């Protein structure tokens, strides 16, 4: 069932992090791939809007790389390559917006540990996501979920949208009753407002919770009314955002992955109740983090 948020919904201003007037650091992980370059460009656009500093991070080794040990020649070569990558990224940022303040970090720590430490003082961590596939999912999926788990601030996993994605494709937020979802709703409205695109609030009910046929329509209306109330405060704080409410009875993983393929951004909380009642390391969260159809933001 689909609806829009009524204009007369009672609401208060959306509180918290996403309502603050100024941002601090956006941390961007670089590994030389096209995906990390896409993440860098996306972060640059956001930094231009928020006035954030960008901190570029490159790890000499990853958790899946062999230890360098005493192979100083290898280490020296990796350092040279890492510094070259960071310099190139700084130059690209300067070309996008000369006003962005940039610093860079070359670290010996595994990337998840380095980003986790930096997340304590950052407003956002941005990483590039590989295309999905059995081997890629095993390698990148584990590393991505480690990064999400280690970070104390929101994490954005960037993936290119499909070539046929509409320029006004919506920000999609998965809605449940959890506290992290409340923060995800605030984030989704902030991004929809900043990007000047509509927002889709999606609540998925498990098929086994389906009511009796005679109760189906009234139950859907009650759920739709609840969903409207769930996003009302954020909608009031961002009145320019066009909001659509969707209530579905299906697999949450399937519907969120399907929605991500045509969304500007998929936003989810890091922990939920209901259809995806698990921390982000649960099967649904892990699937969304490393196999979404476009960018996904995980909000704590």
Automatic annotation (TrEMBL):
Q: Which SUPFAM superfamilies match?
A: Adenine nucleotide alpha hydrolases-like (SSF52402)
User: CDD domains given for it?
Assistant: USP-like
Query: Domain of life here?
Result: Bacteria
The UspA domain covers which part of the protein? 25-158, 170-300
Against Gene3D superfamilies, the record matches this protein to: HUPs
Q: Which family does it belong to?
A: Belongs to the universal stress protein A family.
Under what name is this protein listed? Universal stress protein
């Amino acid at each position: 069932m689909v609806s829009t948020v009524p204009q007369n919904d009672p609401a208060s201003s959306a509180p918290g992090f996403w309502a603050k007037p100024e941002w601090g650091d956006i941390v961007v992980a670089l590994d030389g791939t096209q995906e990390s370059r896409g993440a860098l460009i996306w972060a640059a656009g956001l930094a231009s809007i928020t006035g954030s500093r960008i901190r570029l991070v490159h790890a000499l080794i990853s958790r899946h790389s062999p230890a360098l040990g005493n192979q100083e020649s290898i280490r020296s070569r990796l350092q040279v390559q890492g510094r070259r990558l960071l310099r190139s990224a700084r130059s690209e940022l300067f070309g996008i917006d000369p006003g962005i303040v940039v610093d860079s970090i070359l670290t010996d720590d595994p990337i998840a540990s380095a980003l986790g430490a930096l997340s304590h003082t950052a407003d956002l961590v941005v990483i590039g996501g590989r295309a999905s596939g059995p081997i890629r999912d095993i390698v990148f999926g584990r590393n991505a979920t480690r990064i999400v788990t280690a970070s104390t601030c929101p994490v954005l996993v960037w993936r290119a949208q499909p070539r046929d994605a509409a320029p006004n494709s919506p920000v999609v937020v998965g809605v449940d009753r959890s506290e992290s979802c409340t923060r995800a709703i605030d984030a989704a409205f902030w991004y929809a407002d900043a990007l000047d695109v509509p927002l889709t609030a999606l609540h998925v009910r498990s098929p086994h919770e389906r009511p009796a046929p005679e109760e189906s329509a009234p139950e859907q209306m009650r759920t739709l009314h609840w969903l409207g109330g769930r996003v009302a405060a954020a909608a009031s704080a961002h009145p320019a955002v066009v909001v659509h409410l969707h209530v579905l009875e299906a697999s949450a993983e399937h519907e969120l992955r399907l929605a991500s393929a045509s969304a500007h951004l998929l936003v989810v909380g890091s922990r939920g109740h209901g259809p995806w009642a698990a921390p982000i390391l649960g099967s649904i969260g892990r699937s969304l983090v490393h196999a979404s159809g476009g960018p996904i933001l995980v909000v704590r």
